[in-house]
Amino acid sequence: MHWYLSRIRIGLLAGLSIFVVLGSGQSAFAQISPAPGPGEELEEAPEPSPEQETEPGGPTPEAATQSATPLAQPAPIAAMPVAPVAPVAIPEGEAPATPIAPAFPPAIPNLDYGARMRIATKFQDAADPEKLNDISQQLNADIYMSGQLHRMLKWQASVTIAYSGALGSSNVATVAPLDVIARFEPLPEFNIYMGRMIVVADRFTPSGPWGMDEFFYPGVFPGAATSPLQRSGPDGRDLGVNIWGAPLGGHLKYYLGAYQLHDPGGNPLLSGRLQVSLLSPEPAFYQRTTYFGTRDLVEFGVGGQYQKEGSFATPPMGMPIGVRDDYSFFTADAIFEKVLGTSGTASIYGAYMMQKGDFQVWDNFWFVSGGYLLPGVYGIGKLRFNARYQRALNNIDNADATSVLDFQVSYNVMAWFARFQLGYRRSELYVAATTAAGARLQAGNQIYLGVTIADP
Description:
CATH topology of the largest domain: Porin
CATH architecture of the largest domain: Beta Barrel
Distance between the termini: 84 Å
Oligomer: single chain
Structural class: mainly beta
Mean pLDDT: 82
Helix content: under 10%
CATH class of the largest domain: Mainly Beta
């Protein structure tokens, strides 16, 4: 009996010792970050950086069992403090020199999103365009998303919002799809985009009004029903496929697409562009008309479009389209932008466009623009001065030219991301003869105050 009670006491002591040792070993291991298991993302269990590493060589269960006494507790491993990540400081009046790194490293798959808006208050009488005694406003905004499922397979989708109206009409707000694109990007020199996207032939469509100096897009004349620009659907988009690439690191870039594929009975609109950027490369699908002093740029580009039976007479409402002709379009452009050291930045750019087709409204269109960005920061931004002259010729014999002259001063808080624009427009719009009145030039004056804000 005495022997049996001794066996029980020894067993209890041994069990208590093992429990204390295992418990102390587990508390030590709890301070060491485990390695990610199968299928876990590194974001959920990151490896410690050199600054964040604790002392290596934590005790293993075997070592803890051999060295610990029943009542001994191992000393805790002290973790070194983690230094906070300092925010990226962007100088006043400047844009970020490189893309802003996300708060968390991007994983695959991922999702990114953003928004941008343009608002202008305009002073002009709609009934008598030469007078400045009336006020109106326009608003445009985009909300966009993008992501990637694989390093070669990406997507983007966006909607556009417009708030505008016509003379005497009630408020009209429209929300419509903008871009819906599936993107296959195996190489910088070769990419395939499919879906609803911009139609690229000229320099300015991949820039849009967000990446250019002036508030108003070129070729959009006050009071004109059509534009002498390249052909596209609403908002410069159309359904189609585009093959593009940027060889030589982006010093050379090409676009080749087929659009207006929503109508299986119609002929596709073929559109292409080739451009050379001599100083700074432009490797992305989108680009800017001016880079607001962040780079030097010398660029030359040509583009064209063709659509079989794409030029046709507009019949009365409800009548089928009858007579047709082939449509073609050609454009050439050039940009010179130079940072003049501490003296600011000078920009000059221009383009020529020409349409062919028996039923096209416009024959040719050209414009030239010059800008100068002051080097100093005034308050929280920089001042930029700009002037642009546009001239288009109607496809009617002996028609007078339509012209628009813009003068603008902008206050760039963050280059193209945040700016305020104050401008004056002088326009002369050719109005064709009707049964009630002869042909004439309709003059117009306008003062505008615009604001452009975009998500960087």
